[in-house]
Write a structure and sequence with these properties.
Layout lengths: L5 H21 L8 H18 L5 H33 L1 H23 L8
Helix pairs in contact: 1-2, 2-3
Amino acid sequence: MKIYGVALLAFCFLTGKFIGNLLGAAIGISGDVGGVGFGMLLLILGNMYLKRKGLLEPPTEKGILFWSSMYIPVVVAMSATQNVKAAISEGPIAIIVGVIVTITGFFLVPLISKIGRKKQND
């Protein structure tokens, strides 16, 4: 049953959106700032906490895994539309920052891919 885990996902999503709206209001933006990211972080932390405490039964764990897999593409795609509209309406600085972050991410891929590899003996 995939219904297990929906409560944790809903709690994390709504809490993340709330935090994002508070952060947006604090910096003077009339929108959500990082709510999806906060929600994803809460979902990861909540899942880890419940596993450590032994409170997850196998069906619940499978449900959380399923919904966390669905969370990323669906919710991020929904928020991406809003972010593009805001970036275009706010001027070129948002687009410039987005391009810089994307290019930096491309350059960091080789560095990040080396993390965790065992050193090979020559």
